[in-house]
Amino acid sequence: MPVPDVAESFAGEVTRITLGATKEEGGTRTSTVTVGGARNVVYGGSVEDASAKPVIAMDVLDSKPGDWPDTLVEPYKDVLDSPGDWAKKCVEEFGAELVCIKFDGIHPDKADEDATHAVKVTEEVLKAVGVPLVLWGCGNDEKDNQVMPKVSQAAKGQKCLIGTVTEDNYKALTAIALADGHFLITAAPLDINIAKQVNILASDMGFPPERMVTFQATGALGYGIEYAYSIQERQRLAALSGDKMMAMPVICDVGYESWRAKEAKLADAPGWGDVKDRGPMWEATTAICLLQAGVDIIRMRHPKAVAAVKDFINQIWS
Amino acid sequence: MTRATGDELRKVVIMILIAERINGMFADVKQAIADKDKKVIQELAKKQTKAGAAYLDVNVGTAAADQEGTMQWLVETIQSTSGGCATPLCLDSQKPDVIAAGLKVVNAENGVILNSTPLNKKSDEEIFDKYLEMAEQAGPKASIITLTMDKNGVPQDIDTRVAIAAEIVSKAMEKGFDPQRLFIDPIVLPVKVPNAQVQPGNILAAMDQIRFLSDPPPHMTVGLSNISQGASERSLINRVFLAMAMSRGLDSAIADVFDENLMNVVATSDMLMNKQIYSDSFLKVYASVNK
Questions:
Q1: Secondary structure of A263-276 in the HEC alphabet?
Q2: B160 and B208 assigned to the same domain
Q3: Does residue A192 have a pLDDT over 80?
């Protein structure tokens, strides 16, 4: 009796996007990054059905972080004041294919920096590195609406990935991202129904779904990773079954979430192992776990964790 | 918290709507065929596509003298719609020669449905085999609508419907034809016919069993508007029956895609069956993704 073919096949596929505009496309990027395109679950189906290789976007903060643990400060200690040098270090020393500028410094509860500062940082980083950029607001709606449109304009035509827009705050950034030729991050708080709704709202404004990336919110190992995993998995299955409003590539924020965990940063913890290894391991484990659910871009922080995850990706997607 | 189950890991097929309006039984189409007026047909093709049709049914009706030539004219007319009409076609005729004529000119790249054949009939015991052969020749995306009907006619009871469907599926499998390329049509009869009111219930009961005939199951389709033939409140009858049938595994229907209330019932049923992820704009998104 012949062995039946039990491989699942799917009707739909995840959108494939290419971030970054080179000189030929009117930008100044020296490289581009293509992600998405999965036609099956991770490890499922034939090799041709796999997504493009997932990529890591290394975080660069617009202002010196005040609350980073020593392990995380160490690799960047000379550049924390200079986003341009920081980005350069990520690309040249740690092999970042994407740099994510996280505008924490504009938050009213933090440095409360203004748009002029944010634009300056954006220009510095654009000048310092040739990889495509992710431009990520501070999460305060009012401040993001003031600052991020200016950031978008400063990077006009570079095909950046900019965000985030939410169900309650999407109009300003969606409009400017569309005008400036960027890709858009639509965000939801671990809620698949809201995630779909944000995508619909943004597309109703004329923003093409083919230029969106979804952020479902991330939970780190030990801090809700199972919720994040399930939602990523559910989105991926919906995409594969042909739901075009769920077919976007996915970004997750592993760096920030992992380094909030006390297990990643508590130095005085006998029996937990060396804190210098523990943090990067926490971050790498979170990333590798989420990769199985189907994610395309991972924001990360520690170079050791980045190296470990890149190694994993290269082994699986080769 | 939402966790994907084994069932969700399967390919989820959303409702496959076959738009019914390009049919010579409708006066405007009949006239267009007589006048060779392409515009009427092409407008219907465009509008039905926009309304959410996955396939366009093409039926020459009874008026045309040259049915084969008319089928070819309709297919070519639809395919030459200005701005293009890539919506696959569902060639609708009880005569294999008319379907074969349509197949000669159809673009089957995006799929084509041969509509329809019984399991067998008195005048042609091998009719289903002919359809299988035609579908194979038409390419890997060609499907067949098969009626749960044989040489004894349309069965009135549940068991005979299921038995015929089982025979259809096993015959297809024997010939190496993927059951997922079959659309089983359990034959909907008008509810407003003396003693026919038991039929909708029988059909639903038959569907309950047909969906387990293979794994993954064959598609199931119905000529939806038949159920309300001659009745009042046609649209209401159509859409309530559609919701009931979708809950039993119906995943296709030949229907009036211009009936917005009907389309909303399809979207809502798909959502309630967890085939579409809920969002506050679920009606709107259904309309947009099906374009």
A1: HHHCCCCCCCCCHH
A2: yes
A3: yes
Q: What is the mean pLDDT of chain A?
A: 95
ipTM: 0.82
- Residue range of the domain that includes A235: 21-316
Q: What is the pTM of this model?
A: 0.85
Which residues lie below 8 Å from residue B206, measured CB to CB, with a gap of 6+? B148, B158, B161, B162, B165, B186
Q: What DSSP designation does A166 have?
A: B
B80 and B126: one domain?
no
User: For A228-258, what is each residue's pLDDT tens digit?
Assistant: 999 999 999 999 988 889 999 999 999 999 9
Distance CA A275, CA B146 (A): 67
Q: Is B2 on the interface with A (CB under 8 A)?
A: yes
Instruction: Give the residue from B102, B122, B144 where a domain finishes.
Output: B102
Answer yes or no: is B67 within a domain. yes
pLDDT tens per residue across span B44-53? 999 999 888 9
Q: Is residue B174 in some structural domain? A: yes
Structural domain boundaries, residue B243:
111-258
Residues A237, B8: C-beta atoms closer than 8 Å:
yes
Residues B160 and B32 in one domain: no
Window B:258-277, CB contacts with A under 8 Å? 275-277
Q: Rounded to the nearest 10 degrees, how much is the dihedral formed by the CA atoms of B220, B224, B226, B228?
A: 140
